[in-house]
């Protein structure tokens, strides 16, 4: 019975990983275009010098190149995990080891992202950092407002679909 529970847990974990990797892959296909637009907007809004723009572009290139390599390694490891799980006699130690490998790869990728952000902050002046923080807060607020509107529409749609007025009356 314990073996069945472990197998079910590992199968569930594998399913979640596969679904999340598909979602990430679909979202990542649009990132290079967004990154270029974001860099252009940042250069304009923060009044970056040519040298700062060149440094940030080089950092961005390095991060994107590394991310491609890391995603490839993660996808390969997830494929190998799937193969381990599809075996007739599942070797739990190999499955656990593969899951740990995937976790380490994802952690390394996250560390590189954080390091890239820290390196970016070294390029900007104190004034530019402050401006960037202000812009970030404004965009977060806009996002929250848009998300709230979408949630309101979704909730009111649910109420209308259920035959309710949406005014709070039942």
Describe the secondary-structure layout:
Elements: H1 2-28, H2 31-45, H3 50-86, H4 92-123, H5 126-161
Tell me the radius of gyration: 23 Å
Largest sheet: none
Could you tell me how far the N terminus lies from the C terminus, measured between alpha carbons in angstroms?
47 Å
Helix/strand class: mainly alpha
Instruction: Report the order of strands and helices.
Output: HHHHH
Structurally, the number of domains stands at 2
Large-scale geometry: flat
The low-pLDDT segments are: 165-170
| Secondary structure: number of strands | 0
What key phrases describe this protein's structure?
170 residues; mainly alpha; 2 domains; flat; disordered C terminus
Short synopsis of the structure:
This protein has helices at residues 2-28, 31-45, 50-86, 92-123, 126-161. By secondary structure, the chain is an all-alpha fold.
Describe the structure.
- The protein has helices spanning 2-28, 31-45, 50-86, 92-123, 126-161.
- The protein is flat.
- The protein is mostly helical.
- The chain starts with a helix and ends in a 9-residue tail after the last helix.
- It folds into 2 domains: 2-124; 126-164.
- Mean pLDDT is 82; it is low at 165-170.
- Helix 1 (2-28) runs antiparallel to helix 3, helix 2 (31-45) runs antiparallel to helix 3 and helix 3 (50-86) packs antiparallel against helix 4 (92-123).
